[in-house]
Amino acid sequence: MADESIPVLGDISPASDFTEIEKDLNNSLSKLAAGDGPNYKLLKIYSASTQVVAGSLTRIEADLLDENGKVKRAKISIWSRPWLPNGIEVTFECDGEPTVVKSHDP
User: Fold this and answer.
1) Among positive and negative, which fits the CA dihedral 15, 22, 94, 102?
2) Dihedral (C-alpha) 93, 30, 14, 18: value to the nearest 10 degrees?
């Protein structure tokens, strides 16, 4: 009989508290804006999940505000592998726009 309190590697866990996810996303957004972009501000998180993979993968659906003041609904994934140089990989998928993938240090 499996112990349900132990997370299974690869399992996706929906997040009910966005506090830590919001903190991590805002950290990534500010590091990317200080570099070569993109320059987004977080407006609202609608849903999020986490998954333990080679590191951790957080998937977020949120509204972002771009540098022109346009609100964009985005699917964002943050793949964190802090032992690697530039080990945080952030992917932005906004409707009608090309996917943007950027990396930064933890």
Assistant:
1) negative
2) -130
* Sequence-distant (≥ 6) Cβ neighbours of residue 103 within 8 angstroms: 86, 87, 88, 89, 90
42-65 confidence digits (pLDDT tens): 999 999 999 988 899 999 999 999
Q: How far apart are CA 29 and CA 51, in angstroms?
A: 20
DSSP string, 49-92: EEEEESEEEEEEEEEEE-TTS-EEEEEEEEEE-TTSTT-EEEEE
Assess whether pLDDT exceeds 50 at residue 1: no
Which residue type does 17 have? Answer: D
What is the pLDDT, as a whole number, of residue 4? 52
pLDDT at residue 15 is higher than 80: yes
What is the C-alpha to C-alpha distance for residues 63 and 9, in angstroms, rounded to an integer?
Answer: 29
* Burial 71-88, CB ≥16 within 10 A → b, else e: ebebebbbbbbeeeeeeb
